[in-house]
Design goal:
The chain is mainly alpha-helical and about 500 residues long. The protein contains 19 helices and no strands. Keywords: Acyltransferase, Cell membrane, Membrane, Transferase, Transmembrane, Transmembrane helix.
């Protein structure tokens, strides 16, 4: 059941209406039923995995809470907690490994053995990747770690905890929520609030605009080129690569935006997942803005426990590489994703090594670090490196990625550009819609960059303060663009595959 499907447009109003009709004491139970139904629409049998992860992490929290209050010696308490959190991680990561990585691991081992002249026929496991498994397992494990660190008390109400793990707006593609935010809110079922409903629905509409008007149109051109990279050169490859950066941003942000809006309608606030990532002035800054729920998860539960930057420069760089290797692997069982993650790790290390030199250069040349031209240059340079990494993320193989980078250097015959452009899959109407949609996104991003940074839906709020005629003209313009985009939609959100 995609957010951009007819089924969801029927499911969501019914879920919301009955949620507010039911008495408060049973609203969480209704949401849990809705969440499990929503998940089972993909493959009913995989609900077992969601429930298993929920039960394991729920019990691990109770065991650690019991140990803490048992009156046992501190050493015994630590031992019980260590074994409990280890068991929780092994069982959950074991599920994730089997369903997401087992065939990739077997194939990789076979290839390595073949390099040494050892012929091995690896078994092929008949498994299908359960939708959302990477997201809900990481969310459940964050709860385990928070209880382990005594940052929260273990949740005693199983149904409330089960809803935290399976909350349908963000179940299959995030944001990866924390217990200190969402679980705490679930203790008090949401109340009907007109402002929340209005803001939530407008936020959802903005998400649909990003997906259907921009992302799905970018996908047409990107897929045309990347599915035959040897058949295109120069500006065609550059355009496809730039549009993929736009596609994945709008595609993933659209899901997060719709999720945030849907949760707000129900009376809950989900965490922000994107904060103008293409306005980043460095790779480090980019990762403070991109997929914030995952990057903060990796920081808090992997990078810092490994030692972070506290144990010397070499250890710091090792920790960075491990973290970004895991980030790449989390995205998918393919070397392209791993290469993408490792490349970002290398970027971060090079950036850290060069920082003292760039700081001295600015000091010697007496260039103001706040200079606007310098600021724009840093944004452009950062985007170029981010987009180079996106080439590996999108390509069907690492070989294809290098083909894209190499062939992008070829110059094009200016006389053929107009003709070639329409051969990339987008006709004039769809190209025009894409350009208008991108312009709207750019304007909204500039407004937010120059406005109240705490306002997560600045454009929506700005529109809501206009007079009646302007406000509804803009609303209907957005709706009409979404409606006119229905003939090319139906594509899954990119992050569903992770």
């Amino acid at each position: 059941m995609l957010f951009n499907s007819t089924e969801f447009l029927l499911f969501f109003p019914i879920a919301v209406l009955l949620y507010f009709v039911f008495p408060k004491k049973i609203r969480n139970y209704w949401l849990l039923i809705c969440s499990y139904f929503y998940y089972m629409c993909w493959n009913p049998k995989y609900i077992v995995l969601l429930v298993a992860s929920t039960v394991v992490t729920y019990l691990s929290g109770l065991v650690m809470e019991w140990a803490k209050n048992s009156g046992k010696a501190e050493a015994q308490i630590v031992k019980i907690k260590n074994w409990t959190v280890a068991a929780s991680f092994v069982l959950n990561i074991g599920l994730l490994f089997y369903f997401k990585y087992i065939n990739f691991a077997m194939d990789t081992i076979t290839r390595i053995m073949a390099k040494f002249g050892i012929a091995v026929t690896a078994p092929v496991f008949d498994v299908v990747l359960p939708v959302g498994i990477s997201f809900y397992i990481f969310q459940a494990l964050s709860y385990t770690m928070d209880v382990y660190r005594d940052e929260i008390y273990a949740e005693k109400n199983f149904f409330r905890y089960a809803l935290f793990v399976s909350f349908f707006p963000q179940l299959v593609a995030g944001p990866i929520e924390r217990s200190k935010n969402l679980l705490k809110q679930l203790a008090t079922p949401g109340e009907f609030n007109y402002d929340n409903v209005r803001s939530g629905l407008l936020t959802m509409m903005w998400g649909y605009f990003l997906k259907m008007v921009i992302a799905d149109r970018c996908a047409i051109l990107v897929d045309t080129v990347y599915n035959n990279v040897s058949g295109y050169f120069g500006y065609q490859l550059v355009l496809a690569s730039v549009l993929f950066a736009l596609q994945i941003y709008c595609d993933f942000m659209s899901y997060s935006t719709i999720a945030i809006g849907a949760a707000r309608v129900l009376g809950y606030d989900l965490m922000e997942n994107f904060h103008l990532p293409y306005f980043a002035t460095s790779i480090k800054d980019f990762w403070r803005r991109w997929h914030i729920s995952l990057s903060s998860w990796l920081r808090d539960y992997l990078y810092i426990p490994l030692g972070g930057n506290r144990k010397g420069r070499i250890r710091k760089y090792f920790n960075i590489m491990v973290t970004f290797f895991v980030s790449g692997l989390w995205h998918g069982a393919a070397f392209t994703y791993i290469f993408w993650g490792v490349l970002h790790g290398i970027y971060q290390i090079i950036e850290d090594v060069l920082k003292p030199f760039t700081d001295k250069l600015l000091e010697k040349t007496k260039i103001n670090p706040d200079n606007k031209l310098l600021y724009v240059c840093k944004i452009v340079v950062t985007f170029i490196f981010v987009d180079i990494a996106w080439v590996f993320f999108r390509a069907n193989s690492i070989g294809d990625a290098f083909t894209v980078l190499k062939n992008s250097l070829y110059t094009a015959n200016l006389a053929t550009i107009k003709v070639d452009l329409w051969a990339l899959g987008l006709d004039m109407r769809n190209m025009g819609m894409l350009m208008v949609g991108t312009l709207v996104l750019f304007i909204s991003s500039v407004m937010r960059a120059n406005g109240d940074q705490s306002n997560k839906t600045l454009l929506v709020e700005w529109i809501s303060r206009r007079n009646f005629i302007i406000r509804y003209a803009l609303y209907w313009s957005c709706m009409l663009m979404i409606i006119f985009s229905m003939d090319i939609t139906g594509q899954e959100f990119i992050y569903f595959q992770f």
